[in-house]
């Protein structure tokens, strides 16, 4: 399954390339032999929920969550009713510190996605219980292309790059037109090294308002 929204004409050429055929064969084999997350119909959820035309913020993750029932196609987000993983707990702590927004217990970030926040992992599938198991199979080529077509937008986009893998993508971004907000990853291993206190949400909204764009309502509705 490939994106069928306004992303399709921008990404269609990727689907005829050898890496894409190899990647889909790899994921198909993995699904036949193992549990793979997210479910097949949620792999491209980020591109279905957030159209290219609407993108105003792009948050880059790495792998989908590899625990049962967690991944649903949006980076850092979990399906409604699923307990928030530690990185998301820390994101919510920073959100409350930054904007005073209390987030309750819901871990679904779909409300952000529907406002133009593209929540994209750089690898879009993972084998259950095995982090990084689908890296370097071709997903990164595809998601770099997604980043490139977002970068090509004439209006300002705010890119949030958390952690070394995401920050390595800065070279693909035109920083004379767009705004990059970068920090250590929100995981418990690194959040204290500079993610906490980085105020990404207020800074993103300030950058959008400065460019005449509508700010994001970063609240997370109760499920």
Structural class: alpha/beta
The gross shape turns out to be globular
Number of strands: 6
The spatial strand order of the largest sheet comes to 3-2-5-6
Mean pLDDT: 94
Percentage of residues assigned to helices: 25-40%
Largest sheet: 4 strands, parallel
Number of helices: 8
Task: Report on the architecture of this protein.
This protein is of the alpha/beta class. About 30% of the residues lie in helices and about 10% in strands. The protein has eight helices and six strands, in the order ααβαβααββαβαβα. The longest helix is centred in the first third of the chain and has 16 residues, at about 20-35. It is globular and about 45 Å long. The mean pLDDT is about 95.
Key structural traits:
223 residues; alpha/beta; four-stranded parallel beta sheet; two-stranded antiparallel sheet; 6 strands
Helices, strands, pairings?
Layout: H1 8-11, H2 18-33, E1 36-37, H3 45-49, E2 57-61, H4 86-99, H5 110-113, E3 117-121, E4 126-127, H6 139-151, E5 158-162, H7 164-167, E6 179-183, H8 200-210
Parallel strand pairs: 2-3, 2-5, 5-6
Antiparallel strand pairs: 1-4
Short characterization:
The chain has helices at 8-11, 18-33, 45-49, 86-99, 110-113, 139-151, 164-167, 200-210, and strands at residues 36-37, 57-61, 117-121, 126-127, 158-162, 179-183. It has 223 residues and is of the alpha/beta class. The strands form two sheets. A four-stranded parallel sheet has the order 3-2-5-6, sandwiched between helices. Strands 1-4 form a two-stranded antiparallel sheet.
